[in-house]
């Protein structure tokens, strides 16, 4: 698949609490921004042959309809009677929808397709959201909620590599960095700075996570248009190319996992993506990684190979992951500040790759960026997807 | 959501602490899955797991669905017999009462109260050092 697929357009909505917009309104708005971003124009209705819609809870999160591919037609009538597939793969939903779209193009089944991600997160009662993750048979009645799973890894990591105090310090630094980056990104849900003290004294949600360690419930939508690499220049002089892609699923039940200090799904997805891309983590100029919780970002540094296991604290303390550092992470604000509308999250991260690799990221631009990465981890810590992009034709 | 069939299917794991030892690779599976998570075999032997073990990791939840008590500690325990559980703590007040490596015993306690029904299951109770 390396170098066979290009992105020729990308667009998203400003993430946030969007009570005045339906799922369909969000998709329509993201699609319009995406189509308008195609430099030389595209006749969407005629040229796009198929689409993938990534939505995790979709209708369920708004407690309305069951979503199928047909849901996309209501927002994008230009796709009427074409092949539309709905993808749901926990927090990797958006990135996996993109991956499936890319595989169809790489396989030669289609020339031009769209990958869409969308989610309404704010219209479900928080109580029901808390229950949603806890309802699985093996974990039934334990009272485990989304932060619980990641927090289990956080405490195990702190015990093995640092201390509870050091972990607290590192997590607060991640929160401060991502909130700052969020203020530089016009698509971010949160656009305010916080201090380390605020982060480390906020109410506890799931120990050791406090309020500012957790991503918000956010509505959003994003879309990209993909095509066969040879066709890309017809639509733009600055396409970005898919360099590598990887997906991995681990066992669901945490006690059955081999490690409680490393998300092996991320490790394996990254391994597959780096191998396909023929690069090492050192070749990356920036990365958009899954920071559903501040600790998750620390874990990602290690699992994605930005540093050795146990050394994540050094990266955030020494500013290597800040804009201007060795490998800026989550220039968009990440899930922490930009938001985590599940299906839209992954595609939104791909949009950030698009902006960075086309030198369109404004105040948060990484100078001379040529290779970027996008990563999601969910399920919880059981499913990971990694996609790597470049602006140079491979 | 109908909860009772869940509990019914897992009743041996829940109330008798029965684990499923793989006859091929000897991995103890808990709770039951259709195949051994290690080697994929379907050939299990039922074994009664020990009621004591050590904490591998833990968390304490302060925001929970209303059917649960708060704050609610949860942990992953490695049982002395082999086999791992992930479930709620009992008799703890905050994260200060828990540490990795501490010994616990498994006791049956109320897990939640929903629609007027009490749901019971295995919980982790910290063992005093002098009881070891």
Termini distance of chain A? Answer: 11 Å
Biggest sheet overview of chain A: 9 strands, mixed
Label the structural class of chain A: alpha/beta
Query: So, CATH architecture of chain A?
Result: 3-Layer(aba) Sandwich
* Widest β-sheet, arrangement of strands of chain A: 3-2-4-7-1-8-11-10-9
**If you average the pLDDT of chain A, what whole number results?**
94
Greatest interface and its participating residue counts: A-B, 35 and 39 residues
**Strand neighbour order, sheet with most strands of chain B:** 6-5-4-7-8
List the helices and strands and how they pair.
The complex is a heterodimer of chains A (394) and B (132).
Chain A: E1 5-12, H1 23-36, H2 44-47, E2 50-54, H3 58-61, H4 70-75, E3 83-87, H5 93-106, E4 112-119, H6 126-134, H7 146-161, H8 164-183, H9 196-201, E5 204-207, E6 209-210, E7 220-228, E8 240-249, H10 264-277, E9 286-288, H11 294-303, H12 312-317, H13 334-337, H14 342-357, E10 371-378, E11 383-390
Parallel strand pairs in A: 2-3, 2-4, 9-10
Antiparallel strand pairs in A: 1-7, 1-8, 4-7, 5-6, 8-11, 10-11
Helix pairs in contact in A: 5-14, 8-11
Chain B: H1 4-9, H2 11-16, E1 18-22, E2 28-29, E3 44-48, E4 52-61, E5 72-79, E6 84-88, E7 103-114, E8 117-126
Question: Could you provide a short overview of the structure?
Answer:
The complex is a heterodimer of chains A (394) and B (132). Chain A is an alpha/beta fold and 394 residues long.
Structure write-up:
The complex is a heterodimer of chains A (394) and B (132). Helices cover 36% and strands 18% of the residues of chain A. Chain A is of the alpha/beta class and 394 residues long. Chain A has a single domain, classed as 3-Layer(aba) Sandwich (Peroxisomal Thiolase, Chain A, domain 1), CATH 3.40.47.10. In chain A, strand 10 (371-378) and strand 11 (383-390) form a beta hairpin. The longest helix of chain A has 20 residues, at 164-183. Chain A is globular and about 55 Å long. The mean pLDDT of chain A is 94. Chain B is mainly beta and 132 residues long. In chain B, the strands form two sheets. A five-stranded antiparallel β-sheet of chain B has the order 6-5-4-7-8, with no helix packed on it. In chain B, strand 5 (72-79) and strand 6 (84-88) form a beta hairpin. The longest helix of chain B has 6 residues, at 4-9. The radius of gyration of chain B is 15 Å and the shape is globular. The mean pLDDT of chain B is 91. Strand 5 (204-207) of chain A pairs antiparallel with strand 4 of chain B, so a sheet runs across the interface.
